[in-house]
């Protein structure tokens, strides 16, 4: 939630109609770096946000109770302790996603997604450590180490048959992935939803649908 003492954010846009923010850099903000709240029609582009692990807060751009917000061409380097909750995601490409490049270093850990509602999302739950938007990537021996990732109460419908994909690096894999109370159905009635794992390890609890075979009860 946004702290309405606007001084604690590096940049806060609250109750704004039609605004454009471009070409700024932020480093180690005391709170969220950029917060947008109760606003309509905001365009954010070409921001560079850097928050190393010791930074007090790693929210890059936080959007709350706003409409028509377009964020593009931003570089957000934040690390661990990312918690997403109480969100509704409708007809997007990705629902809850972690993606990393091959050959990168560092880690992505202590990340949680709770109480997320999805409607006809193409990739409802996805960890993609083979991210390669322009093609031509090789498999490398190093990878970002992904661990301690929780999906709790993630429910809704998938626009693709493959509802859950955990594709972790061949070198380090993903560890301590937890799924609990996850229920994703195929948006097409009567069609099954499926899950796929590569080198992912962890636990599941309560309902996990479709079943994710690489996680154990
Ligand atoms: C779950 O998130 C929705 C918003 O998508 C919110 O309205 C609801 O109160 C949340 N439920 C719980 C139990 O926190
Ligand atoms: C990288 O490794 C994965 C997993 O073994 C494999 O599916 C993929 O085809 C490989 N990609 C390349 C470009 O070799």
Automatic annotation (TrEMBL):
Biological process annotations from GO: carbohydrate metabolic process; cell wall organization
Main location (coarse class): secreted
Keywords annotated in UniProt: Cell wall, Cell wall biogenesis/degradation, Glycosidase, Hydrolase, Secreted
Origin superkingdom: Eukaryota
Compartments (UniProt record): Secreted, Cell wall
Listed InterPro entries: Glyco_hydro_28 (IPR000743), PbH1 (IPR006626), Pectin_lyas_fold (IPR012334), Pectin_lyase_fold/virulence (IPR011050)
GO MF term list: polygalacturonase activity
UniProt KW Cell cycle keyword: no
PANTHER family in UniProt: PTHR31375
Family designation: Belongs to the glycosyl hydrolase 28 family.
Identification of the protein by name: Polygalacturonase
Species the sequence originates in: Zingiber officinale
